[in-house]
Design a protein that fits this description.
The protein has one domain (4-81). It contains 3 helices and 4 strands. The protein has helices spanning 8-21, 60-64, 68-81; strands at residues 4-6, 38-39, 50-51, 82-84. The strands form 2 sheets. The chain has a two-stranded parallel sheet with strand order 1-4. It starts with a strand and ends with a strand.
Length: 86
C-alpha cells in the first residue's frame, strides 16, 4: 500500500486535524499549530520525502503543557502515511 500524496498545505492540515482530535493532548495543547512541511531527501530522512524544521506553533504555552513530544509523535505518524506531492 502506497503513501497518500498531498501538498505541503494538505499535510499541514492533516497534522493540525490530528492535534485537534488527539486524546493524548488536552487543554493548552490543542492550541499548538502544525508546521508546514518542506521537501527532504528520503534517503537521509527515513524514507520520507518531507520534513519539518521547527514547530512554530509549539509556543512556550504549549511547552508548559509538555505538548512538544506528542506533536512530534503525531508528525512522525503522518510522515509514515503521507508523501509530499511535487
Amino acid at each position: 500500500m502506497g503513501k497518500i500524496k498531498g501538498t505541503a498545505e494538505e499535510i499541514r492540515q492533516e497534522i493540525q486535524r490530528r492535534i485537534g482530535t488527539s486524546k493524548e493532548l488536552d487543554g493548552g495543547c490543542k492550541d499548538c499549530r502544525a508546521a508546514t512541511p518542506r521537501p527532504a531527501d528520503p534517503a537521509t530522512n527515513g524514507g520520507c520525502n518531507w520534513t519539518v524544521d521547527v514547530f512554530p506553533g509549539v509556543s512556550s504555552r504549549c511547552l508548559d503543557f509538555a505538548c512538544l513530544d506528542s506533536v512530534k509523535d503525531i508528525t512522525q505518524t503522518v510522515m509514515a502515511e503521507y508523501e509530499l506531492r511535487e
